[in-house]
Write a structure and sequence with these properties.
about 775 residues, seven-stranded parallel beta sheet, five-stranded parallel beta sheet, alpha/beta, about 10% strand
Length: about 775
């Protein structure tokens, strides 16, 4: 046990693994963006952050999480992996020396890694396991220096303690941190960041020492990479886990250590962790199967923290099922505490604030605050089952009522999906379609386009809000949207783009817009969750059978096409992404729900085609996101996900060109699935990763149109013409030029018009330079 503890503080009987950190009204987002804009200083930002942290801690205590260390200290200004990078001082050499005179990475250096500079791209961003959260990928090489460069974790603990609340400090664990890292650009071939474990561990030990001195009784180290099938051999990971927690648990002075393993079943590494001297082990007992008694026997007197409440979705917990799991675990493990399966950062704050939802629907849901109550009820059950009987019975009654509620099951929808045949999922051979599309569209080499959205200006957002409040008539609102569409079309014409978009000013969100126009969905008012940094989304609630009662996008696309003779893309969000970025019903297989959405989109595509739209883009940026963490589960997922896209798109004529878009994913993992979508053109994120994807495309022999992005829209920096030219030149080396399209990485909704216009102008100039070189080489 840690030398500074005269007695052991038991792990709290009830706690969350994490809590939403953006604030109930996105206070953190607003403060951070105000700091970036220069309207508040670092002291004001710090004060806002402290107020959010204290509000969270007090709220969780109000909800019954009152024991020492029951409140998770999982606050972050931007990203938990970036926090670990800051703590370790692991600044890539390409950024120069970002540490201040005191050897610390201050808030400006921290944000530089996240957002880049005029001359340096930020850290690469990718999906956090099977969620819609994005993390910033560390860059580690043989020469990366590790030194304690941030004291924020200790300072935040001390601040809460000074206000009467002992939190549980948190950091991404060393094995997961290194497994999620990429080799730096100057690392030799074959270098593995995990090889730097011995150099990282002393910095973690110093953190343990500081926290113990500050009075922390527990620390949470997150090791979700252990529930994923990794390319690194399992034996190497096992050795790294054993070594890491031998060193950390034997630190001379430390808090008690909880290792958390969210997002899936721990499986093979459970025994490795059980054999170490850690003090508590969290398992995801919601998504993963309950481990056997034999597997749990090695825990000895460690506390097993059972994640039996889903931290990743919003449906009310079946307390009877969870209670049965806890009975099974308690019989095998002895010391039991109750928690969520994952951090509740993936769900909104409080369902009671969604008064616009029906009382019936609200009764089916549990946001973060309700999950805290569920965890408390289940902890009471572990102590005395009789005390939780009424709550368990009530949950069972609500779940039974939900199954028979109107709209949950619709016979007309189920009859249609039941009648599908193989022909509904197939188009003509690509060679036939390619010839028909070349004749219909007559595009130049390296055609230029954008992904769909243009900047959502304050005026657009204000008009939408005024229309929702009734202060702006529907006719007035529609005219304002048409004015914005004309502005976007005129700008693209002036810049010289080949395939245009209407800019999507009428859309609040690429999923919510469709959810508001499809049956079987509802939307929230305050249900914000963090996607990355200050970017927040409001996932829709998909609760029933899905169908489309009227066209959704057709009038806007038709109007935009009337403004130009160039091809105008119709823009839709694909079925997998609609599922991934919604809170989806949990009472039937995802594949069934995906087919329902696919049929609704098929109807929309047919109407767009009938209206004269020759190019239709069906975005699937989340295709990689839902990929199961275990490889054995990949084939089944890829089958239904690809099929739902093909179901949506297979009804069009050969001359109608189908595009899709994917972003921020490891494409090599699912390149076969991307090929299987059978889209005529696929645009892919590539700028921030500096065109890594083209090697996967080349080795796969990808044979259809592809647009690897050349403009990273998730950063405010403007790529220069030379930078874009070099990216395109790299693409041309690896992908036949006849297949290449030129486009940004993603939609432009979050950017401002000044930076967007300059970036898009540079993109066109660079394209013309590379085109000229291709024509010259062909002579």
């Amino acid at each position: 046990m840690p030398e500074n503890n005269l007695s052991v503080t038991p792990f709290p009987a009830a706690s969350l693994l994490g809590y939403p950190r953006i604030g109930r009204r996105r206070e953190l987002k607003k403060a951070i963006e105000a700091y970036w804009a220069g309207t508040i200083d670092a002291a004001a930002l710090d004060a806002a952050a402290k107020e959010i942290q204290l509000t969270i801690a007090r709220r969780l205590q109000e909800l019954g999480l009152t024991e020492a260390a029951a409140v998770p200290g999982t606050f972050s200004y931007y990203d938990q992996v970036l926090d670990a990078t800051a703590h370790l001082g692991a600044v890539p050499a390409r950024f120069g020396n970002l540490l201040n005179a005191g050897g610390q990475l201050d808030i400006d250096g921290y944000f530089t890694l996240a957002r880049g500079t005029k001359d340096q791209q930020p850290l690469e961003m990718t999906k956090w396991f099977d969620t819609n959260y994005h993390y910033l990928v560390p860059e580690i090489g043989p020469e990366t220096e590790f030194t304690p460069a941030s004291n924020r974790i200790v300072e935040e603990f001390g601040f809460a303690l000074a206000n009467g609340i002992e939190t549980r400090p948190y950091i991404v664990g060393p094995v997961t941190y290194l497994l999620l890292s990429k080799a730096s650009d100057d690392a030799p071939a074959g270098f593995a960041p995990l090889s730097r474990l011995e150099d990282v561990l002393p910095v973690y030990v110093q953190l343990l020492d500081k926290l113990a001195a500050a009075g922390a009784s527990w620390i949470q180290l997150d090791e979700p990479a252990l529930v994923v099938d990794q390319d690194t051999p399992a034996a190497e990971i096992e050795a790294a886990v054993a070594r890491a927690y031998e060193v950390l648990s034997n630190a001379a002075q430390r808090p008690q250590i909880l290792v958390s393993t969210p997002y899936g079943a721990l499986d093979g590494q459970l025994g490795t962790l059980a054999a170490t001297n850690i003090d508590a082990l969290h398992i995801d007992a919601f998504k993963g199967a309950v481990p056997s008694a034999a597997a749990l026997a090695g825990l000895g007197n460690k506390t097993l923290v059972a994640g039996v409440v889903d931290g990743h979705n919003i449906w009310r917990n079946d307390l009877a099922v969870s209670a049965a799991k806890l009975d099974e675990l308690k019989a095998a493990a002895g010391r039991i505490a109750v928690s969520t399966s994952t951090s509740a950062q993936h769900v909104p704050h409080d369902v009671t604030e969604e008064t616009q939802l029906s009382e019936e629907l609200r009764s089916w849901l549990a946001f973060a605050d309700q999950k805290a109550v569920e965890v408390r009820i289940l902890a009471d059950y572990v102590a005395d089952p009789a005390t939780a009987k009424a709550a368990i019975d009530q949950a069972s009654a609500v779940i039974a009522a939900r199954a028979t509620a109107a709209g949950v099951h619709r016979e007309d929808v189920r009859a249609r999906t039941g009648a599908l045949t193989g022909a509904d999922f197939s188009r003509s051979a690509y060679e036939v379609r390619e010839a028909a599309q070349e004749e219909a569209l007559d595009l130049p080499p390296l055609p230029t386009t954008t992904i769909g959205s243009f900047p959502q200006t304050p005026e657009i957002r204000s008009a939408r809000a005024r229309n929702n409040k009734g202060d702006l008539t529907n006719e007035q609102y529609e005219q304002l949207m048409k004015d914005e569409i004309k502005r976007v079309v005129d700008l693209q014409e002036e810049l010289g783009y080949d395939v245009l978009v209407h800019g999507e000013p009428e859309r609040n969100d690429m999923v919510q817009y469709f959810a508001e126009n499809l049956e079987g969905f509802d939307v929230t008012v305050h249900g914000w969750v963090q996607s990355y940094g200050s970017r927040c989304t409001r996932p829709s609630i998909l609760w029933g059978d899905v169908t489309r009662s009227a066209p959704i996008t057709v009038k806007w696309a038709e109007y935009a096409q009337s403004l130009t003779t160039k091809p105008m893309k119709g823009m839709l969000t694909g079925p997998v992404t609609i599922l991934a970025w919604s809170f989806v019903r949990d009472d039937q297989p995802l594949g069934e729900t995906a087919n329902q959405v696919g049929l609704a989109l098929r109807d929309e595509i047919a109407d767009l085609e009938a209206a004269g739209i020759k190019i239709i883009q069906v975005d699937e940026p989340a295709l990689r996101e839902l990929l199961p963490l275990r490889k054995a589960d990949h084939p089944a997922y890829l089958k239904w996900s690809v099929d739902s896209f093909r179901l949506a798109t297979a009804g069009v004529a050969d001359a109608t060109q189908i595009h899709t878009h994917l972003c921020y994913s490891e494409f090599g993992v699912i390149i076969d699935a991307i090929d299987g979508l059978d889209a005529d053109v696929t645009s892919i994120e590539a700028a921030r990763s500096r065109m890594e994807v083209v090697h996967d495309l080349e080795s796969h022999g990808f044979g259809r149109g592809v647009g690897p992005g050349v403009y990273d829209i998730h950063s405010p920096r403007v790529p220069g013409e030379q930078e874009v030219t070099e990216l395109l030149a790299t693409a041309v080396k690896h992908v036949p030029s006849r297949q290449l399209w030129v486009n940004p990485d993603c939609g432009l909704k979050t950017r401002g018009y000044a930076e967007t216009e300059e970036s898009l102008r540079n993109l066109v100039k660079a394209t013309r330079t590379v085109r000229a070189g291709l024509l010259q080489a062909a002579k």
